[in-house]
Amino acid sequence: MGVQQLEEAWALRAGAREARLLAAPHVPAALSQLGIVRPGDRLVAFADDFADAFTRGFDGCDVVLVGDPCAEVFAAASEGFAGSFDVEGPHLWWFVNSIGGFGLRVPDLRALGRAAREARALLVVDNTVASIFGCDPLRLGAVLSLEALDRVCAGKAPRKLVAASVARSQLKRHRVDAAAECAHALLEGCGLAKLDMPADEAGVQERGLDSLDVRMQAHFDRARALAEYLAANEMVRNVRYPGLSSHPDHAVATGILEHGFGPAVEFDLIERSGDDLFDALPGEFRTSPAGGAATRLSAPRGKRGGTIRLFAGTDDPLIVAATLDNALRKLATL
């Protein structure tokens, strides 16, 4: 299967009009690489994980970072800018994660999609954490959905890839969605060269797509088990997982996410840093490939901070919980 066939397969899976594959380290870099956000545009983004990528990657663009992924905040940040659905622009862009940011927030994509069209904005969703299995941004109102493919290929691809999918513009009763039509025209005219992909790399992606549903369901199920374990653990605090009723977006998440609540859990250590925990854990918790079978931990606020983000693998959650428990107990005695 070549690049064109992979893009067609991805577009079919995403319910998209078309899809493009790009070599990029993460979604903000891929969006910048596409070149569809132009100088003179305004980009309103809830993306505190990648704040630097937005402030540095969109020269000549008015970038506004907001602290809440709700429609009212995005609308307020867009005041005074006259966006257009004409290809020539200027364009107003709204960017959110389907699951993301500190706290693993889940925005109401339906409400954002409606508000974006009222504001003549183009809604872009980073769907990497939820994945194409766990969320359908194009159906919910996004005109563009981008997803890093680490988890699709089970962490086995030789380089980082991102898939960009554009929404269909045909609505009911033969009406045309002007926002989606604009996004399609911009993607068509971006002039980006077709990705060069060796046969072995294409094979990894093809096999990943074939096995995606089973693997992603395992990631989701294990994340839920580990979230429940952590929520009951007195050695951590502030467990954040959209499937817990304590999460601020739990009610929204039940209507936005599918097959569960994603593969990620976030929590805070008590008077300890990420470095302390990583020193007490086996190395594979940090060195395993992103999106692979092994559970992986990171420190989204830096290793000296106390916030930990866990991406559940397909490994045994009982063994992961026992290993975490031993490490946390070790920290408590230091």
Can you tell me about this structure?
There is one protein chain. The protein is of the alpha/beta class. Strand 10 and strand 11 form a beta hairpin. The chain has a seven-stranded mixed beta sheet with strand order 1-7-6-5-4-2-3, sandwiched between helices. The chain has a four-stranded antiparallel beta sheet with strand order 8-9-11-10. The protein is built from 13 helices and eleven strands. It folds into two domains: 197 residues, 3-Layer(aba) Sandwich (Aspartate Aminotransferase, domain 2); 121 residues, Aspartate Aminotransferase, domain 1 (Alpha-Beta Complex). Helix 9 packs across helix 13.
Number of helices: 13
Oligomer: single chain
Question: Helix/strand/pairing class, anyone?
Answer: alpha/beta
**Per DSSP, what share of the residues sits in E-state strands of 2 or more residues?**
15-25%
Unreliable segments (pLDDT under 50, ≥5 consecutive)? none
The rough form would be described as globular
Strand tally: 11
Overall average pLDDT: 93
Instruction: Please name the fourth-level CATH homologous superfamily of the largest domain.
Output: Type I PLP-dependent aspartate aminotransferase-like (Major domain)
What composes the largest sheet?
7 strands, mixed
Order of helices and strands: HEHEHEHEHEHHEEHHEHEHHEEH
Query: Would you give the CATH topology of the largest domain?
Result: Aspartate Aminotransferase, domain 2
How much is the radius of gyration in Å? 20 Å
Total domains, how many?
Answer: 2
Kindly report the spatial arrangement of strands forming the biggest sheet.
1-7-6-5-4-2-3
Q: Termini distance?
A: 54 Å
Overall helicity: 25-40%
